[in-house]
Amino acid sequence: MIIKILMLVVFFGVMLGIGFYCRKNATDVNGFVLGGRSVGPWLTAFAYGTSYFSAVIFVGYAGQFGWKYGIASTWIGIGNAILGSMLAWVVLGRRTRIMTQHLDSATMPEFFGKRFGSQGLKICASVIVFIFLIPYTASLYNGLSRLFGMAFDIDYTICIIVMAVLTGIYVIAGGYMATAINDFIQGLIMLVGIVIVIAAVLNNNGGFMEAINGLAMVEDATVTSQPGAFASFFGPDPLNLLGVVILTSLGTWGLPQMVQKFYAIKSENAIKKGTIISTLFACIVAGGCYFLGGFGRLYSDRVDIAAEGYDAIIPAMLSDLSPALIGLVVILVLSASMSTLSSLVMASSSTLTLDVLKGHVIKNLNEKMQVFIMRALIVVFIVISVILAIVQYKSNVTFIAQLMGVSWGALAGAFLAPFLYGLYWKKTTKTACYASFIFGAGLMVANMLLRSSFPTLLQSPINAGAAAMIAGLVIVPVVSLFTAKPDEKLVEETFACYNKKIEVPQKQSLSE
After folding, report:
1. Cys-Cys link to 231, which of 22, 215, 253, 293 (CB 3.0-4.6 A)?
2. Can you say how many angstroms the Cα of residue 79 is from the centroid of all Cα atoms in its chain?
3. What is the pTM of this model?
């Protein structure tokens, strides 16, 4: 117990120290929200990765999808690395950095407002962010209860409050730069921790081959009649597995807290390095989490899924580890949760301040007051997320849990297509953006309220979210072709940022 407590004290001390150290970088809006747009490749890549993978992935998704698909759940991690990280950086990174700086936009709703010359579009996007980021924030506390109960035997409410308060302090003090530096440290803990935990769990099961053989012997007639399905290449249910891969991978392209990382990156070279670093990070962390979860059925004698749920699987796998390793796991999950929480509250507070209050509710809002309001809103959002998490835990309110489940799909379904086409296609119209907003958010709300009315395949919020994103990629170009063309002057001025002449070394470009 002493070892575990000391590890936590050191961890929290470092996080808070960095927050106060970075106060000098958080005196204006650009510094507080974007770190002065001068963040290097390592910090940006780790900030992207740690915002991507939270405790929901490690405890919830790894346990749930590992149980459902066996070792084939590793494909989710591979998809996260290739589609959710590498291609996101290649397709979005450079263009996002250039256009958002040209438009002087610090948030995704502000980008929509300036790119399409529509205040209404900005407000609509802000409302969607506000509605769906808050319950998503509350979901980050899921899974911590069982781990803290196993490691410290303390009340879940206390651990929620402590984590939320400490995260709030360093984000409020140091802004984006403190978040980025802490994300880097938390990312290193996640990288080392997942490798050690996988090695320890496999060792407890007689090694890799013995664990695979044990998994091949598992049979579940309610899932599949195929022998050895849980140790097979594509698992017992490849179609639903594909839906999970699409939602958790392609979804990052439309999430405000993820895309906003590209706003702050420093240079062309930083984007190239960041692409490689982010991809490798996702391979190890996401691939490792889902690979570990794939062995969950080896612990079926310790877990009653019907009574305890999927969140009990990973803690059961870790219960035999040494106290030092359990302490490492707790810090690993705390790192994953705190990094994502800090990213979400930054996105929520900056959106509400810059896109709703500034110029609309409060006409004259100077830089100092904007930063103050953002800091105050971070406190508000963290308090709301804590209340939601505690209410759900104490009362088991299923509505909150359902709302958390649809948040990712609603945000990505609404924003992915308009943002992507907005960066690349001059003919994208604001009406098409509205159509995507309404369809993506509307489909997920309908899925939550009228789930039994949906086709069987789309009754899963995961499959519905994947469908919303793919549909948006069709809706935006089709609606754009049949609605009023965008203002030509505005479009040309916006896309002029890509034609700006800059000097580069000859090794990057041959002279004519």
Report:
1. 215
2. 14
3. 0.86
Three-state secondary structure string covering 180-209: HHHHHHHHHHHHHHHHHHHHHHHHHCCCHH
CA distance 363 to 350: 17
Tell me the CA distances in angstroms from 511 to 267, 269, 498, 505, one per residue in order: 22, 20, 19, 10
Q: What's the mean pLDDT when you consider all of the chain?
A: 84
Q: How many CB atoms lie within 10 A of CB 11?
A: 20
In the chain the domains, ranked by start, together with CATH numbers, are 2-396 (1.20.1730.10)
**Which DSSP letter does residue 116 get?**
T
Whole-number pLDDT of residue 276: 94
Q: Give dist(CA 289, CA 174) in Å, integer.
A: 30
Tokens of 204: 């407890």
Amino acid at 104: D
Write out the two tokens for 453: 């009315």
Query: Quick one: DSSP state of residue 487?
Result: P
Instruction: Say what the pLDDT of residue 441 is.
Output: 93
| CA–CA dist 408, 248 (Å, integer) | 8
Taking only the tens place, the pLDDT of each residue in 285-335 is 999 999 998 898 888 888 777 777 777 788 888 877 777 787 777 788 778
* Rounded Cα–Cα distance for residues 404 and 135 (Å): 5
Predicted local confidence at residue 59, as pLDDT: 76
Flag residues of the chain having pLDDT under 50: none
Instruction: Compute the distance between CA of residue 61 and CA of residue 55 in angstroms, rounded to an integer.
Output: 9
pLDDT at residue 510 in the model: 61
DSSP, residue by residue, 295-315? TGGGGTTT--HHHH-GGGHHH
The per-residue pLDDT for range 476-487, each reduced to its tens digit, is: 999 999 999 999
Q: Specify the amino acid at residue 503.
A: E
Outline where 294-366 has alpha helix (H). Answer: 305-308, 313-318, 323-351
